[in-house]
Write a structure and sequence with these properties.
With 251 residues, the chain is of the alpha/beta class. The chain contains 12 helices and 9 strands.
Length: 251
Amino acid sequence: MINKIRNIDILRAVEIHHKEYDKLQDIMENTNKVVLLYGPRACGKKYAVTQFCRENWQVPYFCANIRTEEDIFGTMFEGKYQKSQLFMAYLNGEILVVGNVASAQLLALLSKIQNSKSVKFPCGRVEKGKGFRIVYVVERENLSIEGLQNEFAAIRFDYDPVIEAKICQDLDLYNFLNAVRNIGDLCVTTNTFKKLYDMSKIAPFTKSDVVKSLLCGDNSTSTIEEIVKKAGEKLKTNAYMKELASFIKAC
């Protein structure tokens, strides 16, 4: 047990936690509600859950879509029970991370299961394992939870500048990505910071290649002009902005 505690302390010291991690930990440890994490795509919601699992010696089970009750309870096929992810998490007292849920009725069912002591599955009734939790992850920047406050414990996630600065240590690139994040249809996630920073460190790739990768093929003059207009004044001396502005001259 002492070694386990020391290993957790070392892990926590090395890993960077999302700014909302403490809220997540508090809810996971002190409530028995379905945890609702919502926020923009790839901002660290699922990663924070996996961190919690690692630090608490639990296993995360993932269910991308729940469209029917069969997705929740599993099915019988040729006399054999086809286990669902929820069944495995429920039985073993682990964490179930849920993606899209098709209806309010299915959400209500998940809430009922979270608060149950046992559930009847196709294979028979099963008692809930200690530590079982359902985490519902929604990729939206804003989410109305009116009427759901009593059913879910909600936390709004967003991009964490501390984490992004740590994984993207090129200050020019970091400032450039922050400046263009909400311009046009650019999808600048936390993973974008990592991907482009890693790319910038590989010798064959130039700053021009990095910027083109960000644009993802949309090199239209109108898109580039919009970015330069909205962020160019703020980043006059930024090497990546200069590279982007040069694309217009080449058109």
